[in-house]
Amino acid sequence: MSVNKKVPMRQCIGCCEMKNKREMLRILKTTEGEITIDVTGKKNGRGAYICASKECFEKAVKNRGLERSFKMSIPKEVYENLEKELNDIETK
């Protein structure tokens, strides 16, 4: 008798598909209002999930996925920093 463990699913803010939480990147808004990529997935704050692809990031920017998730307007510099962090992760 095997116990089926429930796989945590999250919705991508870019493509809006439900995927396994472990396959996705967590974008974090800290209590100070700073927005960064949470590599560990365990930091405190509000999280939004996105596929680790440039296409999904571009869709999320276009459809304002982060703004809706965090209920705030997001400056262009934040998107630029996130894009740079995403590129660093993709190249590893």
UniProtKB/TrEMBL annotation:
<feature type="domain" description="YlxR">
    <location>
        <begin position="10"/>
        <end position="84"/>
    </location>
</feature>
<protein>
    <recommendedName>
        <fullName>YlxR domain-containing protein</fullName>
    </recommendedName>
</protein>
<dbReference type="InterPro" id="IPR007393">
    <property type="entry name" value="YlxR_dom"/>
</dbReference>
<dbReference type="InterPro" id="IPR035931">
    <property type="entry name" value="YlxR-like_sf"/>
</dbReference>
<dbReference type="Pfam" id="PF04296">
    <property type="entry name" value="YlxR"/>
</dbReference>
<dbReference type="InterPro" id="IPR037465">
    <property type="entry name" value="YlxR"/>
</dbReference>
